[in-house]
Amino acid sequence: MDNNIQVLVDELTQLYQRYQVQSLQNDIMICLDILKYYDFSDQNNQVFIGYVLRVFYILKAKLEQNIDLTTDLSNLMSKGYTTGNNRNIFRRKIGKNRQEFENEVEFYVNRNYFDDEYNRLQRILLKNGAKLVGSASASLAGFNYEKILTNSIQLLDSQELALRLQKIVMRVLKPFENEKSQFLAKQTMVNEDLDETITKRENYLQQYNKLFKQENN
Questions:
Q1: Closest CA relative to residue 159, chosen from 24, 48, 14
Q2: H/E element holding 83?
Q3: Cβ–Cβ under 8 Å, residues 187 and 172
Q4: Per-residue pLDDT tens over the stretch 143-166
Q5: pLDDT tens sequence across 4-34
Q6: Among residues 52, 55, 119, 180, which is most buried (max CB within 10 A)?
Q7: What burial class does residue 165 get, using C-beta atoms within 10 Å of its C-beta: 0-12 exposed, 13-18 middle, 19+ buried?
């Protein structure tokens, strides 16, 4: 298992032990299952997991040091979390000066890579889906039908991972009163996307099982 994946597994396990909330623990367990066969050789996956780790380090600051964190970089810095020894928690690369490092932190804190990752995967899935319309013999995929179908199932697993990780973060980073309506709207959207992702994967799994039976008859 890649080191970054192992670190993320450790962070999720700590959250699981800290919060005795069944829905949160369920999200964590599903993420842990997906991470067992997550393709970390893919560069896009490496970037996404790197982002997730930075977000989880922010969660750790909130939980273990009781720091009231928002997604505002100035608040992070005012608490001293990106200065001194605490800078190391963001894994600052050797040779990077202060401004470069702070720009990187600001990028990771303010940009919602959970949404970016979901949308990136969605674009690929739409292209794959167009090729999978109809039976294996009549589809645009042709001889690549099984390969594209298998790839789509893996992409949907990755999409579910991105959505459930975002749910975990939103649950732990509770919003301020003036942000609650926006927070609840986002939470509803993520849940709807998750339901759609699970349904799509179930449909593709049915197609795969049907194809497998045909090949073995």
A1: 48
A2: none
A3: no
A4: 888 899 999 999 999 999 999 999
A5: 888 899 989 988 998 889 999 999 999 999 9
A6: 52
A7: buried
